[in-house]
Amino acid sequence: MNVTVIGLVGLRKMGRKTWVDGDGMKKGEWTAEEDQNLVAYINEHGICDWRTLPRRAGLQRCGKSCRLRWLNYLRPGIKRGKFTPKEEEEIIKLHAVLGNRWAAIAKEMDNRTDNDIKNHWNSCLKKRLLRKGIDPMTHGPIINNNLTVTTTNEECGSSSTSTSSSTSSSSGSAWLLNKLATGISSKQHDLDRIKNILLVPRITSNDQDEQEEGLKRDHKIGGGEENDDFLIWDDEEIRRFMETDEIEYETTAPYVSLFYESTHILDDLL
DNA sequence: AATCATGTCAACCGCAGTGCG
DNA sequence: CCGCACTGCGGTTGACATGAT
């Protein structure tokens, strides 16, 4: 494997200032010399152990930093620069299915890094969708209501607890879809597992009308869908599984419609 | 010309998953 | 089975660029 650093000279500098941490490891912006050292070492020895690589390559960096630099910047074949409208469209489509799983999205794209895609999404695409009245998480229209979705982040995969009193019911749906996609892509896609994923959230609604609306929607469940026992849930079944899992029917009912929406995605994916 | 807001890019941090002893 | 080390990922931050006022 031979890698040459091309086009680094003349690139504008946008990194962080360089400093040295308590362990004597250099942090922040990489110099051209460091890049050359890293590339030269990998050219000669390949990638084996990121932890010991910096020492062997004569770099005063941690392995994590080297890995990141290589994957996001120095690795050959990386496509850089502005995203084309076609690429943007592709990102939006992939995000609708995969959620914030940037590495998975990057795998489907043409040599774009996950970091690049994530940056572009957060700085540009997300705002563009919002301006168009599209919820960037659900990719559906933004609907105003008072539904309050409460989740603990232990369940969502992050470290703190949050309660989002959203003006859109879609935040719950977004979380749902993300969980669903995560479960499927990590090959945990048996139906029981997916049911468990979908049962985790606790939802509260302080809007009685919304609850009633949700209940009405729930009665649509099972209305002429395919012969899949997972997709066809009647009112009695919903009540039963909520009781089993100690979830209050009245407060959770609105969420069932989100569950139902997610089954369409599930159907496509399986 | 100065200031502010927004966009862009690069890098860090913390957590989760995985493999191994 | 458990704990540790390593890797990979997503969220976040920092600094500069650019456009608008």
UniProtKB/TrEMBL annotation:
<feature type="domain" description="Myb-like">
    <location>
        <begin position="75"/>
        <end position="125"/>
    </location>
</feature>
<feature type="domain" description="HTH myb-type">
    <location>
        <begin position="75"/>
        <end position="129"/>
    </location>
</feature>
<dbReference type="InterPro" id="IPR017930">
    <property type="entry name" value="Myb_dom"/>
</dbReference>
<feature type="domain" description="Myb-like">
    <location>
        <begin position="22"/>
        <end position="74"/>
    </location>
</feature>
<protein>
    <submittedName>
        <fullName>Uncharacterized protein</fullName>
    </submittedName>
</protein>
<dbReference type="GO" id="GO:0000976">
    <property type="term" value="F:transcription cis-regulatory region binding"/>
</dbReference>
<keyword id="KW-0238">DNA-binding</keyword>
<dbReference type="InterPro" id="IPR015495">
    <property type="entry name" value="Myb_TF_plants"/>
</dbReference>
<comment type="subunit">
    <text>Can form complexes with MYC2, MYC3 or MYC4.</text>
</comment>
<feature type="domain" description="HTH myb-type">
    <location>
        <begin position="22"/>
        <end position="74"/>
    </location>
</feature>
<dbReference type="GO" id="GO:0005634">
    <property type="term" value="C:nucleus"/>
</dbReference>
<dbReference type="GO" id="GO:0080090">
    <property type="term" value="P:regulation of primary metabolic process"/>
</dbReference>
<keyword id="KW-0677">Repeat</keyword>
<dbReference type="GO" id="GO:0051707">
    <property type="term" value="P:response to other organism"/>
</dbReference>
<dbReference type="Pfam" id="PF00249">
    <property type="entry name" value="Myb_DNA-binding"/>
</dbReference>
<keyword id="KW-0804">Transcription</keyword>
<dbReference type="InterPro" id="IPR001005">
    <property type="entry name" value="SANT/Myb"/>
</dbReference>
<keyword id="KW-0805">Transcription regulation</keyword>
<keyword id="KW-0539">Nucleus</keyword>
<dbReference type="InterPro" id="IPR009057">
    <property type="entry name" value="Homeodomain-like_sf"/>
</dbReference>
